[in-house]
Amino acid sequence: MGLPEPPELGATALAHGTFQGQAVIVTGGGTGLGKAIAMEFARLGAAVGILSRKQDHRRSGVAAVEALGARAVDAECDIRRPESVAAAFDTLEAELGLPATLVNNAAGNFPVPAEDMSPNAWRTVVDIVLNGTFNCSREFARRHIAAKTPGCIINIGASYAWTGGPGFAHSAAAKAGVKNMTESLAVEWGPYGIRVNGLVPGLFPHADETEDIQGVPDRGKQEDRRSPAGRVGQPRELGWAATFLASPFASYVSGHTLVVDGANWQRRAMLQPEFTPIREQLGKGPFEL
User: Fold this and answer.
1) Cα–Cα distance between 4 and 248 in angstroms, integer?
2) Is the Cβ–Cβ distance between 200 and 157 less than 8 Å?
3) Going residue by residue through the chain (289 aa), what tens digit of pLDDT does each one get?
C-alpha cells in the first residue's frame, strides 16, 4: 500500500499570507526543485528573488512565481564568486527589500567514477555546492547582522552526506561539507536571530533533471518500487517542508537537517544484494589511463 498521496497541488498547510511582506531568495530557483520551492513561498504571499547564471532559467522561475500572483525579481549570479553574490543581493534588496529567507538550492552534479573524474570536475562541483552555499549564506548573514534583523537560511542537502555516494564522490563530499557547515553556522549566528537548517530531498523526479542524471541506467524505471513509501515524492512536498522551516512555527528549529524521502535512505536489507562496481552500474568499460 505504501504512504498516502499528498494533498493536491496548491494546497497549503500554513495560512495564506504567512510570508506576506517578506522576500525570499532561491538560488537555482528557475528549474526543478528550486522552482517548486519558490512557487510554494509565492503561494503564501512571499516576493521571490531568483538567482541563476542562465537567463532562461531565471525567466522560467519568474514566470512561475508571477503566474501565482506574486512578485518576482531575478538577478544573474555565479555563486562561486563572492563579488557576483554581493552584486546580485544588491539588486534584489533594492527591488524587494532585505530578504527574510535564503534557500541555497543551486548545485552541480553528474555521475562519474572517481578514477575518471578530472580535477576540474571535482573543483567545479565543490565550488558550486560547498563554496557557493557559504558565499550566499555569508552575504545574507552579514546584511542581517548589520541590520539587526532575524533571518532564515535553508541549505538543500543530500542523504549521501551521511553515507557517501559512489559515483558522486565530488557531490557527496561537498554535501557533507554543507551539512557540517549548516550545524556550525546555526550556532554562530543563532545569537543574531538567524536560523540555519538543512533540507534533504529523496526521489523527486522532475522534468529539469540533467541529461547526465537522466542517462543513468534504469533511471526512471519502476521508481515507485525503489522506496519504502511505495512512491516517489512530489516536488510540492519539498516546497511545503521548506516553507515550514522558514515559518514562525519553526522558530525554535535550527541546526537541523530535515530529510524528506519516505525513509528511503535509512532502508537496509537483511542480505545485501550482489555488489556491482560503480563502473558497471554506469555502463563504463574498463579503466584506461
Assistant:
1) 27
2) yes
3) 889 999 999 999 999 999 999 999 999 999 999 999 999 999 999 999 999 999 999 999 999 999 999 999 999 999 999 999 999 999 999 999 999 999 999 999 999 999 999 999 999 999 999 999 999 999 999 999 999 999 999 999 999 999 999 999 999 999 999 999 999 999 999 999 999 999 999 999 867 556 666 556 666 677 888 889 999 999 999 999 999 999 999 999 999 999 999 999 998 888 888 999 999 999 999 999 8
Q: What are the chain's domains? A: 23-281 (3.40.50.720)
Q: Angle at the Cα of 64 (from 241 to 79), degrees rounded to 5?
A: 70
Confirm if 26 and 256 have CB atoms less than 8 A apart.
no
Question: Could you list the active site residues?
Answer: 160
- CA separation, residue 196 to residues 116, 141, 158, 240, 264 (Å): 35, 10, 16, 17, 24
